[in-house]
Amino acid sequence: xxxxxxxxxxxxxxxxxxxxxxxxxxxxxxxxxxxxxxxxxxxxxxxxxxxxxxxxxxxxxxxxxxxxxxxxxxxxxxxxxxxxxxxxxxxxxxxxxxxxxxxxxxxxxxxxxxxxxxxxxxxxxxxxxxxxxxxxxxxxxxxxxxxxxxxxxxxxxxxxxxxxxxxxxxxxxxxxxxxxxxxxxxxxxxxxxxxxxxxxxxxxxxxxxxxxxxxxxxxxxxxxxxxxxxxxxxxxxxxxxxxxxxxxxxxxxxxxxxxxxxxxxxxxxxxxxxxxxxxxxxxxxxxxxxxxxxxxxxxxxxxxxxxxxxxxxxxxxxxxxxxxxxxxxxxxxxxxxxxxxxxxxxxxxxxxxxxxxxxxxxxxxxxxxxxxxxxxxxxxxxxxxxxxxxxxxxxxxxxxxxxxxxxxxx
Length: 410
What we know:
Aminopeptidase, 19 strands, 2 domains
């Protein structure tokens, strides 16, 4: 299903070009992402019948072994179970003293091995009924779908022999459903190793429920230190998928209930994607593959792959200076809009040699929601408290040409 894109948004996105590769070559990579491949992984994980992390004495060890084997199929020979011992108490399990089983696999960086990009999802599941656990916990959407996304991204890197600039780690986190146990363990290990500030996380948790009758949308959550990562990811979703990203109203709440929160609490940069149309089968025996939209999951995989590609292979967002609307690199670099995201007041830094003739703000449907003609071509601040939370496009009509910038209103 395709979403409609306005002429305004198309004109903005047409400014973007690939550096070092043709658009056709990059599109070919994206088009290799396959919904059938994603479906296969989800069906395989559901076949384990019950992925609750304390369901048996061996827990999710066999599940972790399956993910390891899949990643090795795609050339990541260092894929391994990263087991860890945990002693503690959770509301779902009471006191615990046992091992859990994360999965970790790395494509090493070809330029810099001090920086790491993690793409991950939790591998465990839970199914509850009347206060107790059910016999099965299929967890197709929650969260075999997220695991299927990172395995598919690994496949695309492998079949195209792509060599990233920085490390790319593929992570399957165990015991998320009892309190982010697996991600807290890995985050603590990485923090102790001094990786804070050098490791970035793309977390996918429940990314396959999407009614065909509704526009494809995804809730994309950011953390306070991940504005730049969030902005790039939003641009990528809008440009290279059929999905509309949404900045959720509950950004300070929902983002706490998934693995990226554990990393954020140690200071890591992270973003978190989750389906906008929340499944009716959450934490039940009915969370099975037949209820899912695999084409939607494919679009989520496209977003993840393109984001990793942007940071690790070639920039997918490089302004094309041959466009007649863009007069110079200096103009682009010196015009600044901040803070972004903003809660209401936006400040502008514009070179003295540039006169601002008009400022216009558009929503993503292309509707003009605000226009201002500043006196004497000067503008310092604009109050947009009247706008609803969301993503907007600012057009600055200047004496040097037109500039389009994205603005996020919290």
